[in-house]
User: Fold these one by one.
Assistant:
Number 1:
Amino acid sequence: MCDHAGTTLHALALLRDPAALPEVLRLLHEVPGDLPRREALTESAVRVLDALAAPEGIPVLHGLLDGECAVTAAAALWSAEGDPEAVLPVLARELGSGRPHRRRAAAETLGRMGAQARSLVPELSVMTRSDEVWQRTAAACALWRVTGDPDPVLPVLRAAWEENLYTRGTIAECLAGMGPAGRPVHEMLRTEVAAPRRHRARTGGYGSHDVLEDERLLRACREALSADRMLRQG
């Protein structure tokens, strides 16, 4: 039951279907506490609220800010309410929680908040020096979106690009958003686009998921390079 409901809610989040809202709110209010894997189901429901930016969900989201879904609830609350004071303390706490997936999710949410998250720039800067490559990548992308300063970010992205092939899609999308500010590392993108043998094939992948991820990577690389080229010509 839980698996099926979670899958359905994930699909509704992708579709951003407002018709899902009453059922999602009912689920968050009524699902039994002893239901196996409740947190996975709650997480999926909160993601629907995030996708819909639904103000009707604000009260229940406030109630989830101290639980296992705190980061997801904070992200959804930001979408629905846009109040940095309500979510920054939660995200600051999760950046220091020591749980890698929650730290990364908190950084990504701060990136969505942009300049409204400036008070946590010191914490993001520390995170760019993490021992874990995905932590550094998430923090660097968020730092760019919060400050608009490429100088402390580009070296981190370059190092992550070389260290872990699977960070490249995320990094390329960040660079696409940076426009000409990312120009010092654009040679990485040109090399990636020109490579005849894809890295996912070299690492034993290339199922349907690998193909989609590789297409996402190449699309982001081309978008960044195309935007820069248009600016140069203009």
Number 2:
Amino acid sequence: MGNPEGSRGPAEQRQGPVLRRRDQVQPGTTDQRLLDTEGDSEWVHTDPWRVMRIQSEFVEGFGALAELPSAISVFGSARTSPGTPEYEAGIRIGQALVHAGFAVITGGGPGAMEAANRGAREAGGVSVGLGIELPFEQGLNPHVDIGVNFRYFFVRKTMFVKYASGFVVLPGGLGTLDELFEALTLVQTGKVTRFPIVLFGSEYWSGLVDWLRGTVVAQGKASERDVLLFHVTDDVDEAVTLVTKETGR
């Protein structure tokens, strides 16, 4: 059963799939450490425990969104002020997506995200917000009907793509660009198929598009067809038509 009291410890120790030998053998057993009511609490910050938290975030996200109807993820700046043309465009996009039969998914924050959630809610659709833990707490905006908060960006990103049929991207900053280029990479590499990406606001996005064509493609870092992976428009109806057409709805 075990070593008699005072005897020398084992030269080999098996902890589930992990094998430890010589000076890597740990005192006690896993059950003993689990049931011990005293001791260091640093274990909640170890990588094995983080794996469990990551797994739980996937489970919570999948469970909350599994029955969601076809949806479009809308991205844009949290700094977009209410009453501006960009904010009003976000509202109209949210409304138009609902009228086209989609739920609307955003990052759940203020600005352009709030505008799209507001449009979806006012149109009687499903308004989803996928929040993220940040040093500066924002919380989910009041127009979110289904909200999930995540600790880990990569779990949240999975939800944006898994439960959406496409992206509409309003003017935004680094977070918006991060989501945009990840989606482009997934489409380019065939990880997702039939996934329309629409950039709304030609004046804002034109510099980026020119750089992609004039520098990235021109220097052979991407192909010309990669620039065809997205569309640019200033028209709400066209944006919705593009995602509707490419999703086969």
Number 3:
Amino acid sequence: MVRKIAFGLLWLGFIVYAFILSPPQQPGTFELIKNLSLGQWQGINPLVIALFNLMGVWPLIYSAVVFIDGRGQKIPAWLFAIASFGVGAFALLPYLALREPNQKFVGQKNTFFKLLDSRVTGYVLTLTAVILVTYGLTQGDWTDFIQQWQTNRFIHVMSLDFCLLSLLFPTLVKDDMARRGWENHQMLWITALIPLFGPLIYLCVRPSLLEVDAQNITAKQPAAN
């Protein structure tokens, strides 16, 4: 219950900060988002371009865990995972507040789950992140970025969203490890202390899911009186 309340308060606090306390919305924000989405990047700070695209990588990282975790949840995890592609942590925080601990993957992996579970997915996402981070750090203008962070709500909130997604990911790792029969405290610390690349390393090295037959679980349950 404490965990649920904490995530709920964090979600509400993030909403209040983003829409009331953060810097004001700038007139050209919609045009900026449109150009970033369409790849029309001329004149845009490479740091902003890299950050925007990394915010597309993060939902894929979470999807590789959330869809699997959702197999044993009463709430539709897929709904929150898909919404995260548009609003990031604003969509994932309610899921983290509502989900229950889930340390078994019941049933068989279909093609979609095999893709999410594959280390190849982790490799592709890691390569994408390395390219984007390298591009942003080597080509970007930090002075301009800091100025935009201080004055532009979109840049400001997107940056905080990135940080929040980095902080929240480890809360899903322990159950994901249990579903794989894997105990690795060092990896837990890696996901917690290394932003972005810690979770990506985890996706690249985690063992395959252990599938549990639903019929066996039913058989083990005591019969109702």
